[in-house]
Design goal:
The protein contains 18 helices and 15 strands. The chain is an alpha/beta fold and 463 residues long. The strands form four sheets. It has a seven-stranded mixed beta sheet with strand order 1-4-5-15-10-11-14, with helices on both faces. The chain has a four-stranded parallel beta sheet with strand order 8-7-6-9, sandwiched between helices. A hairpin with an 8-residue loop joins β12 (306-310) and β13 (319-323). The model has no long low-confidence stretch (mean pLDDT 96). It binds pyridoxal-5'-phosphate.
């Protein structure tokens, strides 16, 4: 019998996270304050606990995972590496396709990999309550799960369109004891102002982030902090556990290295999680093609500029160097809610600038098509976000077939879609359409950043 799953034991859960900031060939541009000067760590203190700010700023290559955090991660980790042999046979490709199955976590995605350590570090710092935003509901439910493990209070601002499309995600958060409200809400000044101007807005991650930060910093007791489910360095750091495990598992499968690594990218933590340990190999001479995949409806990496921009609509976050569509951009209401974010993580953005990774974008129809092929071959129903990676995997497997090459393709199966069936239903009924954004729409949304400080594009020219 051919081996399908490559499994590790609990003692194989990595003991350290990998910090790519230590290996980037060109320096990262610093986050900027409103005065146009680089921000100081203490300026982030009202929003994040000091121990996570330290991780955010760290340039150490390896950061220890506390034993208590490893014990909590062991609830579902290590996750399996699975060979997509039935998809390979269906496509008649010589490529060997492997996927890391992050859908086995309690919340059903990669998000608990960072939710658990973030909740743990906050608790260690004496924090009692966490606030956050969520798009598709995956991050909100992951944080609800993590705070329930650690006995913290949790309040989640869920983007309106997902709140309506995915009511069971809200229920899941409530099951774990969190409070979940639709954003924009009337509970914050930001939310009230936006609702006054746009009462029917589907919302955006940028708006929900502003609300969650406002709620955290306005707690006079000082015992509330904000958590972010992607974008920031420490979130990407926590997710590298995926790629580190995958490396060991590929060796178990008899593979020397992957030729192609793929992950869908909303704010970038999922993609960074699977790919950064391999980007490190590429920096040190490895020959690997690495693709972050976004939605054509929110095409910051493929059509946006690399520029300084805020991470949220109300401009509460520092200016971050990133590929962006402008902080007020409201993406069309696609079902892949986790990909509806206007900016890309600074670390992922710097890898694009350096030429180490090559972004791709896919339309939702092609992605649902890929999701059905996947369900009817490998058997599982993927999250709409994950379908973007699968569409790219299928293209790469077909390319390998055309070229007659035995490539090894690795991708992250970032989440299951069992609470996203409404999107599948609409697709199968023919109610979804291709959404095209015009150049003038994108240009208009970039107006808001035109007076911000200009960012330097630092690259060695090696890739
Ligand atoms: C299943 C799934 N995959 C991928 C993503 C994108 O995540 P990231 O922001 O880490 O890029 C999300 C975001 O919510 C998600 O829910």
């Amino acid at each position: 019998m051919k081996i399908k799953k490559f499994l590790l034991s609990e003692s194989d859960i990595p003991k350290q996270w990998y910090n790519i900031a230590a290996d980037l060939p060109s320096p990262m541009q610093p986050p900027m304050g409103p005065d146009g000067n680089p921000i100081k760590p203490e300026m982030l203190s009202p929003v994040f606990p000091d121990n996570l700010i330290e991780q955010e700023m760290s340039r150490e290559r390896w950061i220890d995972i506390p034993p208590e955090v490893r014990e909590l991660l062991a609830i579902w980790r290590p996750t399996p590496l699975i060979r997509a042999s039935r998809l390979e046979a269906h496509l008649k490709t010589p490529a060997r396709i492997y996927y890391k199955d992050e859908s086995v976590s309690p919340a059903g995605s990669h998000k608990p990999n960072s939710a658990v350590p973030q909740a743990w570090y906050n608790k260690k710092f004496g924090i009692k309550k966490l606030t956050t935003e969520t798009g598709a509901g995956q991050w909100g439910s992951a944080l609800a799960f993590a705070t329930s493990l650690l006995g913290l209070e949790c309040k989640v601002f869920m983007v309106r369109i997902s709140f309506d499309q995915k009511p069971f995600r809200k229920t899941l958060m409530q099951v774990w004891g969190a409070k979940c409200i639709a954003s924009p809400s009337s509970e914050t000044r930001t939310g009230r102002e936006i609702l006054k101007k746009m009462p029917d807005t589907p919302g955006s991650l940028g708006i929900a982030i502003s609300e969650a930060i406002e709620e955290a910093v306005s707690d006079k007791t000082g015992k509330t902090r904000y958590t972010l489910g992607s974008v920031l360095n420490h979130v990407l750091l926590h997710q590298t556990i995926i790629g580190l495990e995958a490396k060991k598992q590929l060796t178990l499968a008899g593979e020397k290295k992957p030729d192609v690594v793929i992950g869908c990218a909303g704010g970038g933590s999922n993609f960074a999680g699977i790919s950064f340990p391999f980007v490190c190999d590429k920096i040190h001479g490895g020959k690997i093609e690495i693709y972050p995949v976004e939605s054509t409806t929110c095409p910051k990496m493929t059509r946006g500029p690399f520029a300084y921009d805020h991470g949220d609509t109300a401009r509460m976050t520092p200016l971050l160097p990133m590929y962006t569509l402008g902080h007020t951009f409201i993406p069309p209401p696609i079902h892949a809610g986790g990909l509806r974010y206007h900016g890309m993580a600074p670390l992922v953005s710097q890898c694009i600038v350096e030429g180490l990774i090559t972004p791709r974008s896919y339309d939702q129809l092609k992605c649902y098509d890929a999701a059905l092929v996947w369900a009817r071959t490998e058997g599982t129903v993927c999250a709409p976000e994950t379908s973007h990676a699968i569409a790219c995997v299928i293209d790469e497997a077909n390319k390998a077939k055309k070229e007659g090459k035995e490539k090894v393709i690795l991708f992250n199966y970032s989440g299951h879609g069992l609470l996203d069936l409404a999107g599948y239903e609409k697709y199968m009924a023919g109610h979804l359409k291709e959404i095209r954004l015009s150049d003038s729409e994108l240009c208009e949304s970039l107006e808001v950043i035109k007076d911000f400080p200009k960012v330097k594009k630092a690259r060695t020219g090696k890739w």
